[in-house]
Write a structure and sequence with these properties.
This protein is α/β, with parallel strands linked by helices. It has a single domain, classed as Rossmann fold, CATH 3.40.50.2300. It contains 5 helices and 4 strands; from the N terminus they run E-H-E-H-H-E-H-E-H. Strands 2-1-3-4 form a 4-stranded parallel sheet. Helix 1 crosses helix 5 and helix 2 packs across helix 5. The longest helix is centred in the last third of the chain and has 23 residues. Bound molecules: 4-nitrophenyl phosphate. 4-nitrophenyl phosphate binds next to loops.
Length: about 160
């Protein structure tokens, strides 16, 4: 058991998938009364969108399901994140490869696919919705909501 767990969600741009995971999971944590014990953050492997708000399509899709992403700003992953965070959860295998490059060089927490926690998901990657239509963002929310439930169930056994 531990009194504090830090969770980092990682995608490519940190404007679509990982901010969605950030917003969905932090709300689940708050509703579970665990906001003092479970800290949540997100970042991207790339630097193109650093400092920007999430994509407006991601913000709108999340708002439609009651999640607020408006305070989030993109940042790029750093080697120190792998020391700071207990869980480094990536959206797809490209993210996994990219973060594993950092991990092999610097050590720390080994990244894993977020959907490993989504028992009900029919895939283990969250597809990149950036170049697609609105329905891609709905699919992202579905997968992320499901995996968030699985992750929270696991973390309830870890935090006190
Ligand atoms: P994300 O989506 O990794 O889910 O934030 C993307 C955002 C931006 C780009 C690619 C994916 N981009 O190429 O700029």
């Amino acid at each position: 058991m531990t009194d504090r767990v830090q969770v980092l969600f990682v995608c490519l741009g940190n404007i679509c998938r990982s901010p969605t995971a950030h917003g969905v999971f932090r709300q689940a944590v708050r509703q579970a009364g665990l906001a003092g014990q479970i800290k949540v953050d997100s970042c991207g492997t790339g630097d193109w969108h650093v400092g920007k708000s999430p994509d407006r399509r991601a913000v709108a899709a999340a708002r439609g399901r009651g999640f607020d992403l408006s305070d989030l700003r993109a940042r790029q992953i750093e080697a120190s994140d792998l020391r700071r965070f207990d869980y480094v959860l990536v959206m797809d295998r490209q993210n996994l490869d990219d973060v594993n490059v950092l991990w092999r060089e610097h050590g720390g927490t080994r990244p894993q696919l977020f959907l490993a926690y989504g028992d009900a998901c029919d895939t283990d990657e969250v597809p990149d919705p950036y170049y697609g239509g609105e329905q891609g963002f709905e699919r992202v929310l579905e997968l992320i909501t499901s995996a968030s439930e699985g992750l929270l169930a696991d973390l309830r056994r870890v935090v006190r």
